Amino acid sequence: EYVYYYSGIANYNLKQYDNAIMNFSIFIDKNQTEAGAYLLRGHSYSEKKDITKAIADYDSYLAVNPNDIPTMLSKANAYLNVNDLNSYVKELGMIIEKDANNVTLLENRANANANLTNWDATIADYNKLISIDPTKVDYYNNRAYANYSLKTPEAYTLAIADYNKVVELGAATENTYIM
């Protein structure tokens, strides 16, 4: 039965996702205990943008390996690949619970929330990022933009404070807005 598993891996590596899915499916029919088959079939489905099946396989894998951050990230990215930003943000949140100071995850979630115009969540992530690295100009600039976007007197005041911090950090002549 492992011939199907290894054939699936070979097909996946050759980017022959339909053949990979077929082989992993045959293997899984014979052996449901090998969690890696679900993971790799999930990757194959994700490459084909078949999100429903990819997520189901990632969930099967995560049921056995609940703290596997790379697989959790693969699941989040499957949502991103089909532009489901709400689910992407939700999945990133679960990963961040396990890896609270992961700057890349926080930046990605902040950017996704900005694209969703979830300004309070964007600001919360930039607050955390600034606590991790208070010298990063982009964090202040992006948080300022998020506050500005709230369009309240209090938020405008906070945006001005962040823009002043950008000047203080010596980046006033740069185009630092990256969100």
Please tell me about this protein's structure.
The chain is mainly alpha-helical. It contains 10 helices and no strands. It has helices spanning 2-13, 17-30, 35-47, 51-64, 69-81, 85-98, 103-115, 119-132, 137-150, 153-168. Helix 3 packs antiparallel against helix 4, helix 5 packs antiparallel against helix 6 (85-98) and helix 7 (103-115) runs antiparallel to helix 8 (119-132).
The poorly predicted ranges are none
Strand content: under 5%
Query: How does the helix and strand content classify structurally?
Result: mainly alpha
Question: What pattern of helices and strands is seen along the backbone?
Answer: HHHHHHHHHH
Mean pLDDT: 94
Largest sheet: none
Count the E strands: 0
The protein's oligomeric status is single chain
Radius of gyration: 21 Å
End-to-end separation: 49 Å
Overall 3D form: elongated
Percent helix range: over 70%
Count of runs of 4 or more consecutive helical residues:
10
